[in-house]
UniProtKB/TrEMBL annotation:
Entry's Gene Ontology molecular function annotations: calcium ion binding; calcium-dependent protein binding; transition metal ion binding
Name of the protein this chain belongs to: Sentan
Domain (EF-hand) ranges: 62-97
Membrane spanning stretches: none
């Protein structure tokens, strides 16, 4: 498997890309590296990807009802697959409820 940084470097359009563009490209590459040939993840794979690649955002969220709802949806009908759009909705939902987001908002942006 080719490292994400090397995959990013191979995308010429990102050579002068913004931090946000590179962040989204990284997200797409991480997803695509785990997805099947049809571009989808099983719910079990999606859950695993969240726990391995998004732990900082979901850590400490286990007792929140919305988190439990999201994770239980991944446990139900695990043979169903989700596409990139659904995965993005999961990421945004988990990000919005995370304690890490508040910490990020508190980071000083000026000297």
């Amino acid at each position: 498997s080719i490292p994400i940084a090397k995959q990013l470097a191979s995308i010429k359009a990102l050579g002068k890309g913004s931090d946000l563009e590179k962040a989204f490209a990284t997200l797409a590459l991480v997803y695509n590296n785990s997805a099947d040939p049809e571009g989808k993840l099983s719910k079990a794979e999606a859950k695993s990807l969240l726990h391995t690649q998004f732990w900082g955002f979901i850590q400490g969220q286990e007792n929140k009802p919305k988190y439990q709802e999201i994770i239980s949806a991944l446990d139900e009908e695990s043979e169903d697959k989700i596409d990139f759009e659904d995965f993005m909705i999961l990421l945004v939902s988990l990000t919005l409820m995370s304690d890490l987001l508040q910490e990020i908002k508190n980071v000083k942006t000026t000297k």
